Task: inverse folding
């Protein structure tokens, strides 16, 4: 029987399958940066969490009906936790959805309201291949909470939070994000943390990850990996070093564009420069031979800037570059903040998924006609 002393200061995993939960616990314990997890069945987890247990965070399954007499879901328990955190009756900590894709599709798919309950979402089936990445994301969420809790309620210091000066706050950030973080922090830490993780650290927008950085530089992935130290040195001046930076490397999008414009050989904005010219300029400026990214047949164009949302939703996910001129716009199920990049599908993948109602029909018809 799990009690509060077992849970406080550790991650709690709420699941209804003891054997499966133990295998995930053991897998995370063997990660390069081990994660200490305590398992609780739904009834015990609910009792502990709603009466004030203070874990570092919670991994929450979605379907909890495997326990006899249990009729609730992880969504319902997460909602109860958030309500008590908002009222100040229990401590603030991250909640991460940790479930297989099938119960997520059954209970959640198409309903964006549940997203606000969770700081991150992890597919159990991918743990074998992406365990260390997931561990970093879990620790990252914990770090964001700890960082935000260190500020007095409603009084965030943005220079300290993002580790940049006033000029870069003005140039690289978006006033809407700052307002949302400050407003959320006045109400509850998890509101600000959710905005920070889900709309700033996670999606491409104000920040880009390594793969998208390489794509926007117009470099072939194999070539980029070979010369990564040189590329990283070029990008060091606009690397993100604020809260949560150590767990998920990111770079400032606007910093990338300004760094490109500062190169003597660049003749125009990065986004309007063909990939082969991007690679040529960088090869000349950095003193290494970089190969240009070649766009796949299903994603035409020569100015890669976004990624294909439909490909990223595959299992396993695929990173497919998209030139927005030849991309099909996607209407997300929940409105994106203005500082998050709009989402696209490559025309080839969109044509294979024509029944997806999120696809912009005008883009689909126009591009299909152009490419015939």
Result:
């Amino acid at each position: 029987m799990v009690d509060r002393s077992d849970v406080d200061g550790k991650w709690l995993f709420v699941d209804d399958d003891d054997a499966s939960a133990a295998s995930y616990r053991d897998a995370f314990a063997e990660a390069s940066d081990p994660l200490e997890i305590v398992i609780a069945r739904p009834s015990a987890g609910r009792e502990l969490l709603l009466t004030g247990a203070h874990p570092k965070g919670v991994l929450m399954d979605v379907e909890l009906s495997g326990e006899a007499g249990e009729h609730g879901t992880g969504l319902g328990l997460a909602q109860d936790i958030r309500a008590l955190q908002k009222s100040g009756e229990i401590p603030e900590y991250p909640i991460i959805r940790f479930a297989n894709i099938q119960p997520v599709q059954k209970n959640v798919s198409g309903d964006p309201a549940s997203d606000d309950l969770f700081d991150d979402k992890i597919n159990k089936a991918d743990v074998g291949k992406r365990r260390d990445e997931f561990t970093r994301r879990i620790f990252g969420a914990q770090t964001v909470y700890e960082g935000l809790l260190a500020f007095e309620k409603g009084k965030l210091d943005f220079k300290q939070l993002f580790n940049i000066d006033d000029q870069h706050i003005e140039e690289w950030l978006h006033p809407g994000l700052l307002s949302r973080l400050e407003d959320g922090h006045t109400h509850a830490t998890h509101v600000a943390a959710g905005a920070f993780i889900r709309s700033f650290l996670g999606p491409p927008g104000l920040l880009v990850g390594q793969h998208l950085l390489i794509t926007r530089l117009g470099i072939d992935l194999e070539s980029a990996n070979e010369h990564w130290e040189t590329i990283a040195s070029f990008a060091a001046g606009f690397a993100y070093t604020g809260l949560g930076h150590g767990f998920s490397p990111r770079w400032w999008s606007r910093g990338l564009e300004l760094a490109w414009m500062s190169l003597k050989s660049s003749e125009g904005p990065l986004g309007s420069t063909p990939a082969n010219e991007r690679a040529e300029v960088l090869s000349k400026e950095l003193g290494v031979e970089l190969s240009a990214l070649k766009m796949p047949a299903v994603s035409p164009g020569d100015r890669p800037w976004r990624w294909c949302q439909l490909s990223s939703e595959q299992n396993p996910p695929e990173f497919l570059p998209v030139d927005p001129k030849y991309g099909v716009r996607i209407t997300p199920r929940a409105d994106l903040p203005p500082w998050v990049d709009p989402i696209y599908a490559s025309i080839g993948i969109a044509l294979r998924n024509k029944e997806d109602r999120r696809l912009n029909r005008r883009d689909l018809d126009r591009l299909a006609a152009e490419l015939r």
Q: What stands out?
A: The mean pLDDT is 93. The radius of gyration is 22 Å.
